[in-house]
Design goal:
The chain has about 425 residues and is α/β, with parallel strands linked by helices. The chain is about 40% helix and about 15% strand. The C terminus is likely disordered. The structure holds adenosine-5'-triphosphate (ATP) and magnesium ion (MG).
């Protein structure tokens, strides 16, 4: 059988395979992709960027559209981020004109349950933007002088993302993940021992978020006398923070005077809407964050707060199949390299989503479940030339049977055996 020399797909899996000299083939899909590449280059050549104008900023709609290609649901978060990023560009572009009315930056705080897409949103945004962007993890941060990373290392990373160009780094965007982990451990009675990873870090973060001149060593190493120091002005750096803020719903409920059984997990099938803590999260105000253990100054520097919803069953099914690099598409692609077509039935997708819901870690669980479902198949397929089609049905998705294997004539050649039996 012939295969495309570019993507490796067999002639069974493409509409058309065109033969070239000396046993070289190309499929219709690769031809189309090459066409797009050439067309893109032609277009770029036709409209050269004039050197003195900066690239047209992406408008919020464009940013939103890009985010939506990868992220399911989370409409509020996608909109807020699109606007925040666009305003960030605009603010910097026209800084000179705004000289008399200084437009303050609007840093963003994302709050949402685990596996709902916070980090993924930031990563997807990073791919799109042509301003320096870096992602830092707040759990690794400690106050200067203690074991762990200084807050300043975030800026070192941003400079690296800007290819060493300080001026570009100064207009960059920083995403600080797991920000909730630097809340003061006990908000109501501050502990006597020094809290080096909590309030101290908040103070240090505050300094760079509110805009100041910060000195950082060029190589990112701990300050030592010989290290060359860089001076960075953080006034125009946009900060986006994200975290799960476990337990925050309790604080909100208390404030709202709601006494409900809030120990229920965030995820779960058939939970009536008003009882879900996630709905409470939408009522968050800055006071709640202060009670959660944040210093008021820091909360004040994060004026835009947006919450993400837990993904329900339908959303999880969508995560499996819809985004550009959806999980199911990834595995289909993997198996297609062995000339095998992978099919998930509708019921199988539902079963995978249900199990992810039960695990309570949002979309995070999906990959592990799919890996388990397909492990035997991925083990078997490379050494079996006869397998052409693999069908995962609900039983296979629930690990109650093996996926069904078919040969090129559509004959069932494996998987009919019930594993549970
Ligand atoms: N809304 C979504 N749309 C598409 N994929 C998603 C979505 N949410 C999560 N995912 C998938 O799940 C993975 C884990 O999500 P992510 O890392 O963004 O979780 P998180 O919200 O940051 O959770 P945590 O608070 O535990 O860090 C992502 O890499 C992505 O593949
Ligand atoms: Mg995360």
């Amino acid at each position: 059988m012939n295969h495309c020399s570019f993507c490796g797909k067999s002639e069974l899996h493409v509409n058309r395979l065109i033969a070239g000299p000396r046993n070289v083939f190309i499929c219709d899909e690769c031809v189309r992709m090459c066409q797009e590449i050439l067309e893109g280059e032609r277009r770029a050549a036709r409209e050269p960027r004039t050197p003195n104008t900066s690239p047209t900023p992406l408008v919020p709609r464009t940013i939103y559209k890009h985010l939506s290609e990868y992220i399911v649901g989370q409409e509020a978060a996608k909109r807020v981020l699109s606007v925040a990023v666009y305003n960030h560009y605009k603010r910097i572009e026209h800084k000179a004109r705004f000289a008399d009315t200084e437009v303050a930056k609007s840093n963003v705080l994302l709050i949402g349950p685990t596996g709902s897409g916070k980090t993924y949103l930031a990563q997807t945004l990073a791919k799109l933007l042509d301003v320096p962007f870096c992602i830092a993890d707040a759990t690794a941060l400690t106050e200067a002088g203690y074991v762990g990373e200084d807050v300043e290392t975030i800026l070192v990373r941003l400079v690296q993302a800007a290819g060493g160009d300080i001026r570009r780094a100064q207009r960059g965007i920083v995403y600080i993940d797991e920000i909730d982990k630097i809340a003061r451990k006990s908000a109501d009675n501050p502990s006597i021992t020094r809290d080096v990873s909590g309030e101290g870090v908040q103070q240090a973060l505050l300094k760079i978020i509110e805009g100041s001149l910060v000195y950082v060593p060029r190589d990112g190493e701990r300050k030592h006398p010989q290290a060359e120091m860089l001076q960075i002005d953080t006034t125009d750096i946009l900060f986006i923070c994200g975290g799960t803020f476990e337990g925050l719903t309790k604080i909100i409920a208390e404030r709202l005077g709601i006494r409900r059984n809030l120990t229920l997990p965030l995820y779960g099938p058939n939970r009536p809407a008003p009882q879900r803590p996630a709905d409470l999260l939408r009522h968050v105000i800055q006071d709640d964050l202060i009670r959660y253990g944040f210093i008021p100054e820091l909360v004040g520097r994060l004026p835009v707060v947006v919450t993400l919803d837990p993904l329900d069953r339908d959303a999880l099914v969508e995560v499996l199949v819809r985004p550009r690099n959806a999980l199911v598409k990834q595995y289909q692609r993997l198996l297609s390299l062995d000339g095998v077509e992978l099919v998930f039935t509708e019921e199988a997708l539902h079963a995978v989503a249900e199990e992810a819901l039960e695990r309570g870690s949002g979309a995070r669980a999906l990959r592990a479940i799919i890996e388990r479902v397909l492990l035997d198949v991925m083990y078997e397929v490379p050494s079996r030339r006869d397998i052409r089609r693999v069908v995962v049905d609900a039983l296979a998705a629930r690990a109650q049977a093996a996926p069904k294997l078919y040969d090129q004539h559509g004959r069932l050649i494996g998987g009919q055996v019930d594993r549970a039996a």
